[in-house]
Amino acid sequence: xxxxxxxxxxxxxxxxxxxxxxxxxxxxxxxxxxxxxxxxxxxxxxxxxxxxxxxxxxxxxxxxxxxxxxxxxxxxxxxxxxxxxxxxxxxxxxxxxxxxxxxxxxxxxxxxxxxxxxxxxxxxxxxxxxxxxxxxxxxxxxxxxxxxxxxxxxxxxxxxxxxxxxxxxxxxxxxxxxxxxxxxxxxxxxxxxxxxxxxxxxxxxxxxxxxxxxxxxxxxxxxxxxxxxxxxxxxxxxxxxxxxxxxxxxxxxxxxxxxxxxxxxxxxxxxxxxxxxxxxxxxxxxxxxxxxxxxxxxxxxxxxxxxxxxxxxxxxxxxxxxxxxxxxxxxxxxxxxxxxxxxxxxxxxxxxxxxxxxxxxxxxxxxxxxxxxxxxxxxxxxxxxxxxxxxxxxxxxxxxxxxxxxxxxxxxxxxxxxxxxxxxxxxxxxxxxxxxxxxxxxxxxxxxxxxxxxxxxxxxxxxxxxxxxxxxxxxxxxxxxxxxxxxxxxxxxxxxxxxxxxxxxxxxxxxxxxx
Length: 515
Ligand code: XMP
What we know:
With 515 residues, the chain is of the alpha/beta class. Helix content is 31%, strand content 24%. Bound molecules: xanthosine-5'-monophosphate.
């Protein structure tokens, strides 16, 4: 289907930078989509893209089994830009020559521009460029000219302006190529003729239209956790189909202090969504009775969650769709780089395993968005700042922050300690500086003294980390005065905790959560 907005397709040859290319293009207000490298040319045509970008990749064009695009790709009239490996493919497949470079180039190189039009229009004669390659184009294909070189790469950029085909050996998408964005801007606006009218607002408008068309008069269920993704998905769907949306909030009893009331007040009170609240605390606690193994906790919580959700969804007979707040990185990461068009895309589940007989179709309105784009859309839809900027919270909730058995008493204890930690982080401005912060309840008691009394109570650990994606993390260097204040408040105000410790472990080797 042709895209409702102007779109650039990025063919992914396994580059670690494919996502970055997509980001850069969107920052220039052109919608971009990463597609498998071997997408048939006919499918590309069907999407009517304004341009196609071939990403870099780890392979050599000479390697057996090296990923190649459909041979008809270069017969399309669509403007095409090959980056690094993408340029080499273009060179080789169009009849030029690609060779092993005598001097492999990694890192910064001065790029000398030979032809200052099109891609390098308006840019200085010498640019800093970022290179990372072992092969390069040594003979141009017919009709191409060299438009830039470096000391080690005689053809560092090439162009066939009439055919609107370009290749660059350097990486314009990385920040180490300071003028890279301008090179991409020239490609998008001067070569592809894009208008650059993609924005969060235009996304909302086109998506609302699409949802209406897809859903018709039927109903859509959605698991609303109160996290950014499911919240934004809910607001978008609500704007599109109003009360045909059935948002289901499962109170697992494993949530943080005030979380349930915040979700109810925001979505029922403020936005008037027909929120269904499933009270399931006892059910979850029963399933967790006597369980100390972290994986077993996760399994049981997942199972009970699905049961609760299914039971509720089954009460709405005209439901035909299940909506999820899946984001683009989830979709890309779960697609194997060389899997091709049929590669399975994981549907990232908060909710899984709906009964087969329900035969729900999936709607994922955010599946082409990055997290910051989702936040921008949430902001436009009026989602309160506090919910927009919430730290990630794991599906199994506080159960994996209580080491040992999960009981109602221990949940209450942890909720109170965690609440004080978060409150102090917010007051001091540190909440937004860390990726995640929370308290953990240890399965230990230690001796203390309060007044003249000996105490023998629980230990809480404070965990705060900085991270960009949760894959790696470092412990946050919170000011000692702040830690002191949190520790004093917890020990003085939370009856049942008499000691606070600070986790100073990075990931790896630690994980962010303790279980
Ligand atoms: P770890 O502890 O593996 O966590 O360093 C990385 C990120 O993932 C979150 N996390 C989970 N999220 N279900 C989730 O939805 C889970 O079972 C789960 N375990 C960890 C964690 O909070 C952190 O943001």
